[in-house]
Amino acid sequence: MKVLPLYNVLVLPHSNIFFQKSLFRMLAGGNVYQGDQMIIMILKEQKARKDITEDSFYPLGVIAVVEEISEEGYVIIRTGNRVDIRQVAVNEEHEIFAEADPRPEIDDLDPHESRIQLQKIKEELKELSGRFRWGTIMNAYIDQYTCIEEAAAVLSPWLTISNEERYEVLKEDSAKARFEAIRKIIYEYIEVTKVTSDAQSAQQEDYQKAYKEQALKRQIEYLQKELDEMHPEQVSDLRKFELKIEESGMNEEARKEATKILHRLKNEGPQNSAESGMLYDYLDFVTGLSWKKEEPECIDLDEAQKILDEDHFGMKKVKERIIQQIAVMNLKKKQSGSILLFVGAPGTGKTSIGRSIAKALHRKYVRVSLGGVRDEADIRGHRRTYLGAMPGRIMDGISKAGVSNPVMVLDEVDKLSSSYNGDPASALLEVLDPEQNNTFTDHYMNVPYDLSDVLFICTANSLDTIPGPLLNRMEVIQFQGYTPTEKLEIARQHLLPKSLDSVGLRKEQLEIDDDAVETIISDYTREGGVRGLKKRFDTLARIAAVKSIRNKDEQTVHVTKADLREFLDMHALPHLRVNDEAKPGIVTGLAWTPVGGEILYIESLFTKGSGKLNITGKLGEVMKESAQIAISLVRSMYPDLSEMFEKNDLHIHVPDGSTPKDGPSAGVTMTTALASLVTGKAVSPKIAMTGEITLEGKVNAIGGLPEKLMAAQRAGVEKVFIPEENVDDLRDVAEEVKEKLEIVPVKTVTELLAACGIKD
Questions:
Q1: Active-site annotation, residues
Q2: How far apart are CA 129 and CA 127, in angstroms?
Q3: Residue 238 pairs with which residues in a beta bridge?
Q4: Which of 91, 175, 301, 345 is buried most deeply by CB count within 10 Å?
Q5: Per-residue DSSP letters for 157-193?
């Protein structure tokens, strides 16, 4: 008989199989007519007809007859009994024929029980079909099933069992066992379909709910927008926060956090609770920040230079560096370059020039004082879990500035300290590092903020206490102390007008002679800057204010040099002046202090004893070591006089004794003083020196040379010895100072002693 090959189709005896006409003809290998008989055989694996061989089939088939070929385009095949395949043949036209023998059945199925089970299956299928819109039509077909094989044959395309499992059902000889296998397959199909249907329904409900919620939100937003426009004064705080979050330009992480906090605030309940207050403060701070990047502005260098010159006198080197920074920013159209660290004595204009830089850049100015800060949270902020949590000083400054690119002056970075609460200097590393600060995260905000557009300027009085990693991120710019001539100009151009303005006086109501101003500078202030000078002018301005009110007829208050003692109510500050008389063992040195330079006497004296060393003057460890080196060096240079150190006690004193002194610059002075003492040759007080020494007798470089030379000139020194390595630093020294001093560079102590007339 002719063979109809099928794959992955549940073929059962005594059931109907439905095909589309075109598909059926392709499977049958040609035209087939109603009433034709054939054997339906199951392929082991899916193959094209041209690839089918005798071994491609399972050894079992079903006799079938073409029962109906409808005009609507479908074919109904009615299966009969099962057969064992004896032989299969495939000809050149790929037609398939088979010889078969009837396969015996074991008729052990209870008819009554099978009808009951079939009825239950039909009811289950009807219930399942009710879930679909074509359920009524399906029920009509289900009622026509006369056996379980018909139900399974109809469901065959939707069953999830494998081809092997389908063949195992057909191979079963026991009618009862085959019935049970088919019943199990149908019930599995029903349950799987129910679960799938329930999942699809639930998913559809979720979709519908989401669509509905989205539609309602849009409608609410539209209505809320209309209400806000009609009654802007009635917009609630929560609504204002929503609008601010939308318009702020926050990064995605910040927007998510702000939206989450806003939802918590809405659900918090009473608006006066502690939790709602904390959430409100957080949203108020975050939405008040400027998140949008400011457009880069092209700055006119000539205009910037003019602003700097108007606000500050001198500072040529500092102004040149600032103009360079502005030029680079103009070219790159963004903040770039090193973080500037202004280092110098108090009152030299480090902080105030930051305001001038902001003015020149047309930016907002904000100052953050770091003096005495010892808690890391002052920089990074407190976590919101703490009661009274606040943002750090950096983000607080950004909030006060109202823009994302202010000029921020971090004042007194050398006065940071650490405690058990952390190291704020380490926290500043991220703030000042251009590679990291574009994602700076304040603990209070808990979201990143871009600080890369902020122009940070740091100030300090000294570099000694600034940690190395922090100092490495900054470019140090030294602020030299002002010369008396510069102070005079600053007083006339800036300090006196500001003092008069602060008390409400006009320029013509207070006149101060130049001699009086110069005396104030030289005798009533002791500093590298002009802060003390401003205080003196403030005092004179207040006195002038009182006199102008009491003596209405006298419009002008005139201040002369003779009036200063009375008006300022203070003695002139004692400045060390060089001695008139030269004595062996006493040499003039130079020292640097936070308020400028000073001369420093080194006194040495032998007393009868046993070679003991006594050092006084409240010296630090560095200066004590310099004294030890000086003693060893002098003893090696004057071996014939070495017994003087063994038979006498040596006393080294540095006046005044109550002031702490330390630093690596007094070595040459101590060595010269000891050499003068042992040789008995005095060194002129008009000669001063500075430098550190080694045991080899080399003179090493020192710092603070401009301030030291200024102090030497002020004290009446005529000649100064400096280390040769410091010659390059002379370009930072004012011309008026260099004109009044003879500056001699030296390489070795021997060279220095020879120039002083001590050693041949």
A1: 665, 708
A2: 5
A3: none
A4: 345
A5: GG----HHHHHHHHH--BHHHHHHHHHHHHHHHHHHH
